[in-house]
Amino acid sequence: MSQRQVLQVFEQYQKSRTQFVQSIAELATRPQNIETLQNAGVMSLLRPLLLDVVPTVQQTAALALGRLANYNDDLAEAVVKGDILPQLVYSLAEQNRFYKKAAAFVLRAVAKHSPELAQAVVDCGALDALVISLEEFDPGVKEAAAWALGYIARHNGELSQAVVDAGAVPLLVLCVQEPEVALKRIAASSLSDIAKHSPELAQTVVDAGAIAHLAQMILNPDAKLKRQVFSALGQIAKHSVDLAEMVVEAEIFPAVLGCLKDPDEYVRKNVATLMREITKHTPELSQLIVNAGGVAAVIDYVGDCRGHVRLPGIMMLGYVAAHSENLAMAVIVSKGVPQLAICLVEEQEEHIKSATAWAFGQIGRHTPEHARMVAVANVLPKLLALYMDTESSEDLQVKAKKALKSILQKCTYLPALEPLLHEAPSNVLKHVVCQFSKVLPHDSKARRLFVTSGGLKKVQEIKAEPGTALREYISAINNCYPEEIVRYYSPGYSETLLERVDKYQPV
After folding, report:
1. Is residue 78 a contact partner of residue 43, using CB atoms and an 8 Å limit?
2. Residue 249 carries which DSSP code?
3. Are 100 and 134 in contact (CB under 8 A)?
């Protein structure tokens, strides 16, 4: 065989390998092909090609493996069991930038599925190699490495701590400052994934100077970047008063309020979530956001959206109202009650109804005036219906009952309470009757109305055990009226009267 023929054979072999990996990489983009590729043992065929002498073959083999591993955890596990990860980690340090991107993609694709698979990536020494890649000149390599680190960190505190211990956080903060928007996005997302697990991890992110750099990007025109920025700030702020104060001190208010009207749904949701995480901590932080116009902005936001996007806004209003009478009144004055009442009717998801019921409880529990403002919006019958509905989840029933009780214990607006006399079960009824027993002794107009509306008659029909609180409340109400009036409205009185008529002998 001539030298030319030998070269042709080698050339043909190289062309075949290249064609094979390219075809597999292409086929792996379509979900319907995955099972067939898996059954054909494609993993074991791709593994030796990671060590191929031709860089293109190596890179494309890594890309194909990444796409397969990305598809499901079985394939990701096959990558781990096939002993492919150590080779990728070695190559991250040695190979060119194209291979590094592909190798980081495989590590990310494996790590994303579960804490166990992410731990396998850590165990093969990937963290040090990925952190070194964050210092690469090429922004694409940095992006791929940041993405992989974020996918490892997102699962739990231990994995996140491992990413921190490898020295990733200061380099991710540097990546946030790079000019490339895609790199900024991924770095902010990874910082968010690290910060979310514990106050200590969030503090590590803060100590690296992340807040100031994230705060500078809140008005960036790129929606995907803003999503990640607000997510990261929210994950930092949620853990403690100190961390929330640090976020506020970056002077992001009132600038962020405009983002509640952003065209991007997830930007809006993440801003509302950030505000929820800040307001939940203290009255002072809530007051600061109220002073910036935050409550009115969130009420508009809740009115403009539907479904899961509404939830953080509803909860934020509940947290603000929970802190004090004045803050609850700020929610009322900004017309929060009618808007929340709409949510209670419109929303189908039970957890959103639960949050809305809880928010009403926080608004109405402070004073009779607060309770009245909730009651006149016809909220009490809605809460009662949710509590009594057998289809309602246990959580929704508990939240509705608790809110109802909190509002009833302060409510002295009798026209709103009277319908509940006819509908409420005994465990709720006692709170309703209690309020009548407090108000009627001091209000002659209310006493008269209570008779003409049928309220007194209804109270006489209630069967209350002697010695119970309910019995005492009914007695207190009866003491507000002449004995013959009470007797007249008592069950069976008409029959007694008719008997007397029958027995009566005219003179």
Report:
1. yes
2. T
3. no
